């Protein structure tokens, strides 16, 4: 009886040892058990935590992580935050989480004066006027993001003022230009 | 007896506001056009010549109207000081009311005489600007390059204060706004800049509205004249007429309104911020 019990224990130990050994040989990094969004008021710590999670299996939640970082940054608005987000997006591009274009557009959407909603390849009359209302709605949403990025996170009133002014001027000039372009055929 | 309708009054007042604005806009530009012709693409010589002509027509109309409006103002003061309100049966008050009615008719006549020429000039200028805006902004630019044009001048520090306050929504008097436009156009030299795109757009949209208003006013003048002639036979003035006079007075003699820009520039001094390599 004792002999058989010893055999069972030995077998279990062998299986456990083999499992451990196989796991150790696995070249893939361990997958994060839970993609928990960073907490706490410190943006640098939050970015470090986000980087770790995003490179260990949570990349599909990039948008949620980015939004969380924005929220955390709102708690300590300063101009340096722009640099932190720029570096974070450059890192995301280098890690293959974002294309260069996505990184640029994301940064500009929140921290730039220009509107990525206005990216286009064709003339105003041909491409923009037929969807003037939609373009203005998109710009309006982007202005809200710029308010968060420039004003609430970076405390950069001057740049936000410029973005706001640009919105108003674009609205006026587009209204006149589309009127001048004539009815959409 | 409310024969002269509210619509008459509103149309008249709106038209007069635009007329005064047009005078302030066109006259200085006309002077500028003769002394230094800019070569910018949005305001070429042909457009400036049309603006000059429109300015002359507007100036003539303004001169004619100012005399009769001053008289109307004096008559209204006399009417009020004589305590004629509620005392319309008094022969003296009736006489003042008739004189006011005559002045009012005279104002309508001047407008009726000058409006066709004014309408032609405004439409012609509007059409020229439309062509320029369509070509320079609508066909040559993408929405991205258009925004680059607009944002271009913003980055030059110290120029923001000179930028025009935008139309309509600002609550700014038209005349003040046009005065700003003139200053920008006059300063522009030979460059196409973002401010001029805004100015051209603003002038063009106002021209469109003015043109529409002139057309509606012309339709109303005949009816308003007939109604006032009927009024005359009853020897009284209407509250609407008094309001027209009050409105015209405020337009001509400039009761100041608060100049509230849409957005005020920040109080802090501009400083060189962080430039990300990601910035578009």
Kindly describe this structure.
- The complex is a heterodimer of chains A (185) and B (280).
- Chain A has 185 residues and is an all-alpha fold.
- Chain A has a domain at 116-181.
- Chain A has helices at 2-25, 43-54, 62-74, 80-94, 100-111, 124-128, 132-153, 157-181.
- In chain A, helix 3 crosses helix 7 (132-153).
- Chain B has one domain (6-253).
- In chain B, 71% of the residues lie in helices and 0% in strands.
- Chain B is built from seven helices and no strands.
- The longest helix of chain B has 49 residues, at 91-139.
- Chain B is elongated, with a radius of gyration of 23 Å.
- At the A-B interface, helix 4, helix 5, helix 6 and helix 8 of A face helix 3, helix 4 and helix 6 of B.
Draw up the topology in text:
The complex is a heterodimer of chains A (about 180) and B (about 280).
Chain A (H helix, E strand, L loop, with lengths): L1 H24 L17 H12 L7 H13 L5 H15 L5 H12 L12 H5 L3 H22 L3 H25 L4
Helix pairs in contact in A: 2-3, 2-4, 3-7, 4-5, 7-8
Chain B lengths: L5 H30 L9 H37 L9 H49 L3 H12 L19 H14 L6 H41 L4 H15 L27
Helix pairs in contact in B: 1-2, 1-5, 1-6, 1-7, 2-3, 2-7, 3-6, 4-6, 5-6
